[in-house]
Amino acid sequence: MSNSAKKLGDNIRRIRVAKDMTQGDLCRKLGLDRAYMSNVESGKKNPTLSTITNIAKALDVSVDELLK
């Protein structure tokens, strides 16, 4: 697992929890499988730039916020 994938997943989880959203809530907004999102948050999957952009929109943050 790459450090950047882990950092991205940690940021998604942190922001999602701060907005009082479950993984299921986020997945329903995105039309993604919850198991996939779980793998992204744990750093096991590397989402495409398009998916990262959609996650940022669903969380109402910038892509930069997810990647920092």
Task: Describe this structure as you would to a colleague.
The structure is a single chain. The chain is an all-alpha fold and 68 residues long. The chain has one domain (3-67): 434 Repressor (Amino-terminal Domain), CATH 1.10.260.40. The chain has helices at residues 3-18, 23-30, 34-41, 49-59, 63-67. The longest helix is centred in the first third of the chain and has 16 residues, at 3-18. The two termini are 17 Å apart. The mean pLDDT is 94. Residues 12-66 form the HTH cro/C1-type domain. One of its GO terms (molecular function) is DNA binding. Keywords: DNA-binding, Transcription, Transcription regulation.
Keywords:
71% helix, mainly alpha, 68 residues
Produce the secondary structure layout:
Blueprint: H1 3-18, H2 23-30, H3 34-41, H4 49-59, H5 63-67
Keywords: DNA-binding, Transcription, Transcription regulation
InterPro entries: Cro/C1-type_HTH (IPR001387), Lambda_DNA-bd_dom_sf (IPR010982), TransReg_Diox_bact_type (IPR050807)
Pfam family, one: HTH_3
